[in-house]
Amino acid sequence: MKAETQITVRRTTIRDIEDIIEVLRSTKLSNETWVGDDKWAKKVLQKFLKTENYTILVAEFDGKIVGFIDYVVFPSLWECSKQGLINDFFVHEDFQGKIVGSRLIEAVVKRVDAEAVEEMHVSTGWENKLARRLYGNFGFTEERLLLERSREK
Fold it and tell me: 1.20.1250.20, 3.40.630.30, 3.20.20.70, 2.60.40.10: which CATH number matches 3-137?
């Protein structure tokens, strides 16, 4: 059986938190690795799981979580419709480029389409050509400029 047929996507449970943090630890983005705080991440994930309209999905391969994506659905006053935002999306380094990301985005798209979400938004770095191409495969287009303000440290 091919590896892509062994990938399942499901909604996250509280038991998945440690495995999600392990995916964060294993993911490299632009030669950067996650140096986050496990305790803080656990607290945030627990809060997300209790937040209305916030969904976390995990991808499993052979019973092991190898990726996750989270998104929120909210009303837009300007658009007079439901909008969505993909917040975090990570795939274990060993599984990047092996359909896991596609399965996760596909699951989000199916879910938000079923909820009649009019627009989905996502942000990624300009240099992340792989992610930009992947999002494009699911109908995401480069529409607007995202501005960012970071707190000075």
Answer: 3.40.630.30
Is-contact 27 34, C-beta < 8 A?
yes
Secondary structure class of 132 (helix, strand, coil): helix
26's torsion region: left (phi>0), alpha (psi -120 to 50) or beta? alpha
What one-letter code names the amino acid at 57?
A: L
Residues with Cβ within 8 Å of residue 45, at least 6 apart in sequence: 12, 17, 20, 21, 56
Q: What is the pLDDT along the chain (153 residues), one digit of tens a residue?
A: 355 568 999 999 999 999 999 999 887 766 666 777 889 999 999 999 999 999 999 999 999 999 999 999 999 999 899 999 999 999 998 998 889 999 999 999 999 999 999 999 999 888 888 889 999 999 999 888 888 888 887
* pTM for the predicted model, two decimal places: 0.89
What does the radius of gyration of the chain's CA atoms come to, in whole angstroms? 16
Beta strand segments in the chain, E: 7-11, 28-29, 32-33, 54-61, 64-76, 81-91, 119-121
